[in-house]
Amino acid sequence: MQSATALNPAFTGREHWTHNGDTELFLWQKAPERAAAAGTVLFVHGSSMASQPTFDLQVAGRPYSSAMDFFVDKGFETWTVDMRGYGRSDKRPGTQATIAEGADDLVAATDYILKVRDCGPLYVYGISSGALRAATFAQRHPERVKRLALDAFVWTGEGSHTLENRRKKLPDFPPGGRRPIDKAFVYSIFNRDHPGTAEDKVIEAFADAILSLDDSMPNGTYIDMCTNLPVIDPAKITVPTIVMRGEFDGIASFEDLIEFFKRLPNSDKQFALMPGISHASFQQKNYMLVLHILHAFFTQPEPIYRG
Fold first, then answer.
1. If I label 102, which of 4, 20, 37, 136 is the partner at 20 to 30 A Cα–Cα?
2. What is the DSSP letter of 273?
3. Which residues contact 128 (CB under 8 A, 6 or more apart)?
4. Which segments of the chain are extended strands (E)?
5. 307 domain-assigned
6. Is residue 304 one of the residues assigned to a domain?
């Protein structure tokens, strides 16, 4: 372990590479020095940033800015993967990077993880379009998912202020194209719903980490979320699931998520409303609350009696 301070551990990461067909995918792993007795977590990123800035951010003086470090410190092995079109993975011209293709990439990533680690079903967390990718993956491969966490999730899109505004810009998002991003764009993620939910120093560090890997993002998930919802059938998600909704998040209406939650067939399910949170949960002032909710769900005892 490499530790900046006792209260802000930074664990050594290891890069891995695999392929989905001819598409090269980058994976990032962090694990305890001893065996990860608590299990293995797979983090799935969203539409506008790659995996490491989202889940392995380091901010001086802010303990556990890295969700991966938090879970490693709790005894979990952690993995994340750059979807095609993002970060260090394949970014060839014309890459669409749709939600369905992201789920395909998760199949390839878990093929690799389960082969090299033989760790059994994974705890899977996805945020925003990453939650849609994770849910699609769980629909297809429930045998690979021990527990599923859907953060900043959207189901039908009905009542979504964010998607309503995004649809106005659809002509700027051609399939297979990329949209430019800059620091102002990253700030807009935090200011569009409820300014003040994140510290400026965290947004700055987040923006720097994102822009060190990408100056543009693929359009695929934006198009899907604006035109193709719903892409998930809750009745087909059979694994234990938590829906995590930030109080101020405009990506989905409360009613949309509650209706989705009601239709989940597994009675081992939770709905968490997170106070003071907007969209990018791990970069918020209340991020420790988010980590607590997620850790509690992943470590919840399995039911003994089902009735």
1. 37
2. E
3. 46, 47, 151, 152, 153, 251, 279
4. 2-5, 8-10, 13-20, 23-30, 39-44, 76-81, 122-127, 145-151, 178-180, 216-218, 241-246, 269-274
5. no
6. no
3-state secondary structure (DSSP) of residue 40: strand
Sign, CA torsion 1/150/86/215: negative
**Has residue 36 been placed in a domain?**
yes
| Residue 229, amino acid | L
Q: Kindly report the CATH number assigned to the domain that includes residue 11.
A: 3.40.50.1820
| Amino acid letter, 94 | G
257 burial level (CB within 10 Å; 0-12, 13-18, 19+)? buried
Domain membership of residue 305 (yes or no) is no
Residue carrying the six token digits 């392995």: 56
Return phi, psi of residue 18, to 5°: -145, -175
pLDDT in tens, the chain (307 residues): 344 455 566 799 999 999 999 999 999 999 998 876 899 999 999 999 999 999 999 999 999 999 999 999 999 999 999 999 999 999 999 999 999 999 999 999 999 999 999 888 999 999 999 999 999 999 999 999 999 999 999 999 999 999 999 999 999 999 999 999 999 999 999 999 999 999 999 999 999 999 999 999 999 999 999 999 999 999 999 999 999 999 999 999 999 999 999 999 999 999 999 999 999 999 999 999 999 999 999 999 999 998 8
Unique residue bearing structure tokens 């993620």:
189
Range of the domain at 157: 2-298
Measuring CA to CA, which residue among 244, 225, 241 is closest to residue 284?
Answer: 244
**8 Å CB contact between 108 and 18:** yes
